[in-house]
Amino acid sequence: MISVSRCIVCDSDKQGPIVILHNDRYYKRISGRTDYDVHYVICEECGFVYQNPMLSEPEMEDLYAERYRPKLHANYFNEQIIHFKEYFYPWITKHINLKGEKNVLDIGCGAGTMLIPFKENGWDVYGIEPTKNISEFGRENFGINIKTGFYGRDSYPGKKFKLIILSHVLEHALYPEKILNDIKENMDGESYLFIGVPNLTLPMYWEILSGPHVRLFSERTFKLYLKKLGLDLVAIDNWYPRGIRAIVKKGNVNKQVDPKHGDDYRAVKRLYKTILKMPRNGFSQFVKTAVIRNNVL
């Protein structure tokens, strides 16, 4: 396990406990683990929520190489394709402006289902996915060009992509700043980056708190983090049921952010104190009323 001393958003060392999850089903899949409790803390300056301690790199590799999703169901992926064709591809193409040849890289692409509508519309598509059985499934069943492995600076040296997709990866990452800086090496001045993450303050599904989710953004803390790393917003909204979705371009790095523009950590703690007392069917009703209808808390 890795101890975390500071918030990645505002760099504060002021953190307090928010919840301990017992007997996490993902932790149980990691070889040699006997402690299955997940500890979440909250930054008392900006309200950012993260695990402390976090899994070590060898534990992460063990989980994602083979054990993350041990069973594959074709129907699950086919439903994804339909959803991405209807709600993902049109939103992306509405907010970007590209000329000439188009290529796209999906990092943590799973079976490549997000890439299928791009491929059908004439894009050159590339994917990289660390979980072996899922990447193999995508290559064999959907004909997507998928590398098996973790993304890094050496994955596509010198290659520039017009669009890079990072959908529901950052919340799993031990070192998100490194990933985003490596991505910049695969972008030119015209490139766009799509980022999707769960929304801490609009939780749309029960397992937003779980072993693989080492960091959890709200829209406010997400914007602060993008600003800090020099990524300029092109578009952002909340996409039911997946959370925040944003398109960014490379901008100027701004290491200093004002934590007052984040969340009130006391309000976040009250929210999750309420949510974690709910039965799952109660949470579903909460989502339908508080989240979907109002889209704000």
Question: What's a concise summary of this model?
Answer:
The protein is α/β, with parallel strands linked by helices and 297 residues long. 32% of the residues lie in helices and 20% in strands.
How is this structure best described in words?
With 297 residues, the chain is of the alpha/beta class. The chain is 32% helix and 20% strand. The protein is built from eight helices and eleven strands. It has helices at 57-67, 74-95, 116-120, 132-142, 176-185, 219-229, 265-275, 280-293; strands at residues 15-21, 38-43, 49-51, 103-107, 124-129, 146-148, 163-167, 192-197, 215-216, 231-239, 243-250. A seven-stranded mixed beta sheet has the order 6-5-4-7-8-11-10, sandwiched between helices. A four-stranded antiparallel beta sheet has the order 1-2-3-9, with helices on one face. The chain is globular. The mean pLDDT is 90.
Overall pLDDT metric:
90
Rounded radius of gyration (Å):
19 Å
By helix and strand content, what is the structural category? alpha/beta
Describe the largest sheet.
7 strands, mixed
Number of helices: 8
| Spatial order of the strands forming the largest sheet | 6-5-4-7-8-11-10
The proportion of residues forming helix, as a percent range, comes to 25-40%
Proportion of beta-strand residues:
15-25%
What are the secondary-structure elements, in order, as H or E?
EEEHHEHEHEEHEEHEEHH
Count of DSSP E strands? 11
Distance separating the two termini: 34 Å
Tertiary shape: globular
What labels would you give this structure?
single chain; 297 residues; alpha/beta; seven-stranded mixed sheet; four-stranded antiparallel sheet; 11 strands; globular
